[in-house]
Design a protein that fits this description.
The chain is mostly beta strands. Helix content is 12%, strand content 49%. Keywords: Signal.
Length: 136
């Protein structure tokens, strides 16, 4: 019996990149280097810019409790933008891609765990949990 690979969910990968970039933004170092298999990032006072080994690129800018993300996804050849608004332990996000896809969701931090839920106009929806110890 042949096994089929699971369908690739670009929204889930975008969210993981977003969560990775937010964690890097919280770091205190002036320049961050992530293992080359993930991404190489450069940081200034309020901007983080990253490029991964596949050529996907994204940037994160923070202003108060709002975070602005922009990026380019190689696989879909599309640009995207997302805005995150934080209210205590809860972060709401909305995004729009150059192909017209829109998405909404939230992340809720509970101790060392983050619960994430999203849905998009492209039909994707889901939830996943990330932990500082075990990852996503």
């Amino acid at each position: 019996m042949l096994e089929r690979p699971l369908p690739r969910n670009p929204m889930r990968h975008a969210l993981k990149y977003m969560l990775l970039s937010l964690s890097l933004l919280a770091a205190n170092a002036a320049t961050a280097q992530v293992p080359s298999a993930l991404a190489t990032c450069t940081r200034s006072a309020n901007l983080l810019a990253c490029v991964d080994a596949e050529g996907n690129a994204y940037s994160v800018a923070a202003a108060g409790s709002t975070t602005y993300l922009r990026g380019f996804e190689v696989a879909g050849k599309r640009y995207w933008a997302q805005t995150n608004s934080r209210y205590g332990q809860l972060t709401f996000f909305t995004g729009l891609a150059s192909d017209g896809e829109a998405w909404v969701g939230y992340s809720q931090r509970v101790g060392w765990t983050t619960r994430n839920r999203f849905s998009s106009s492209g039909g994707s929806s889901g939830k996943f949990t990330c932990s500082r110890i075990t990852g996503c």
